[in-house]
Fold this sequence. Notes:
CATH architecture of chain B: Orthogonal Bundle
Distance between the termini of chain A: 33 Å
Largest interface: A-B, 40 and 41 residues
Shape of chain B: globular
Structural class of chain A: alpha/beta
Largest sheet of chain B: 3 strands, antiparallel
Number of domains of chain B: 1
Strand order of the largest sheet of chain B: 1-2-3
Number of domains of chain A: 1
Number of strands of chain B: 8
CATH superfamily of chain B: Cytochrome-c3 Hydrogenase, chain B
Distance between the termini of chain B: 37 Å
Helix content of chain A: 25-40%
Oligomer: heterodimer
Amino acid sequence: MSLAKSPWIIHVNCNSCNGCDIEVVACLTPLYDAERFGLLNIGTPKQADIMVVTGSVNYKSVNVLKNIYNQIPDPKVVLAVGACASTGGIFHDCYNVIGGVDQIIPVDAYVPGCCPKPEAIIDGVVAALSILENKKKGNIRGKEVKLKGKEVASNA
Amino acid sequence: MTTIIPFGPQHPVLPEPVSLKLEIDNDVVVGVLPSLGYVHRGLEKFIDTKDYNQTLYICERICGICSALHGVTYARAVEKLFDVEVPERAQYLRVIWGELNRIHSHLLWLGLFADGFGFESLFYECWKYRESVLDIMEMTVGNRVIHSMAKVGGTSKDLSKEHIDLILKTLDTLEPKIKDIEKVFVNNYTVKKRLVGLATMSKQLAYEAGTAGPTLRGSGNAIDVRETEDWDIYRDLDFKPVVEKDGDCYARTKVRIGELYESIKLVRNAISKLPNGEIAVPIKGSPTGEAIMRCEMPRGEVVYYVKGKGTKNLERLKIRTPTFANIPSLLLTLPGAKLADVPIIVLTIDPCISCTER
């Protein structure tokens, strides 16, 4: 149970309008206080367990997203927060938008809404915790996502 | 011998992806190369397929922090095309929600800024007080962040008696709290040590670099679109721009704190003068011609250009956002700064990358 009691999250802004991002940060501040679940926002992917992604994916941020995903150690859980991260949202038709995050990396839980309220985000994180615990028991590993060519180094 | 250090796109201090390649010589920055495009969605092209009412919702989602004023500015630009007069009550309502939006945005920035120089308890303090403004928003317009209260021709929501009581009560409790955090930002020894004299821009330089908003006013230029633009409401509300002379990070912080008080005053004055009547006029037909509209966002001046061609959808929408104007000032102030000060200097222009790249 130790992992689910102190999961550390990394917040990745991937082509988001800031709306979901400030709500993710608001979860960690005193009114909602996600830290009571042991959650800690951490800057580096190498120490993170839960990846919170906001916003759809575009052609420039796609390699950043893959790179961060590959750097998180197993077991790991991906939480897509907001309409854009889930499906592309109202921007799904834009020429520079590929779509939801699940087109690039495997997503375990979705939080709908534009923007979702902090209560909904915390609910999503708590749902992600049980998935994380199951992954640990079953020794399920995330697949490495292949990156394309030389863009990797410059965007890392 | 210089070293290149990448700052971003994923960085703990930055809530948004922007990449700066810093050329470092012995811990001192000698060159900066910004790289943008991580949040580019292509919204100005996207509006081709939407009619002018749907475009409003896209404009509101350009940025989640200043979404209310993006919507208001777009609505005012299209109203200029139609040449309609918006009811006076709607104009006052737009000012009330717009200024509440500015209060929440500045408190958010103060918190992130405090986090940027490692003052975590101050960060939590600012965000705690910000929640009271978001509660007003949730009660009056139904959503915390994307407000959707503007519409072409007026506003889509109205304030009831209970709403006005709630707003006044919240502002009365919020003002002394802001005085408390102001004391820390202005007097604290550690904060002053980090901010005073950092990234100084003279009055002339800030003007010539084309900066906008608190970055411009922090250097002694009394330029505020709320005062200069032809939007009569603000003149009735006894508005004065907040200006500081020093032009460093400390002065820019003081400008934003001063604007919190100014916004609270504007909301109170607007509520006391709020006229009765309609909140929207019906608009028929399709927009033709072109119009430019300016507005003072929390981060500075935004310019909307709209062009109609006689169909339901606009032919062209062009937006110049304040952060786009402020990024060149980073290229002037970052060289010569220490690497450890880079996050503070970047945060001090209040970067909103999703506005800039759209």
